[in-house]
Amino acid sequence: MRRSLTLFAVGILTLTGALTGCSQVQQAAEEAASSAADQVADTAKAEALKRACEPVQDGTLDASDITLLSTMIEPAEAAGVPSSMLDPLRELAETGDSAPQAAVDRAAQMCEDAIADAS
Length: 119
Prior knowledge:
Blueprint lengths: L1 H52 L9 H16 L4 H13 L5 H18 L1
Helix pairs in contact: 1-2, 1-4, 2-3, 3-4
């Protein structure tokens, strides 16, 4: 009887160790998946920012740039680009080709800095 209890206890300890190992494997897998998802989200956000910034990167703003800019802000927002980065672009889109050159220059510089930080 005592031997049976000992074997039972050893079996329980073995099972507990196996389950702990499985738990650690599961945790590692979940952390890896979360890290990969974060990396994909960061890449998507950086790409959306680059696209939204394209119309102002050359320091000019014409009618086709305004049209493109207007269509890029919402997808960038959906990708997680912060409003603080999109607000200057949104203002340019709303102002149109009457935007002051200083505003275009500020937006272009903001874009350059944000894209460099995202890379």
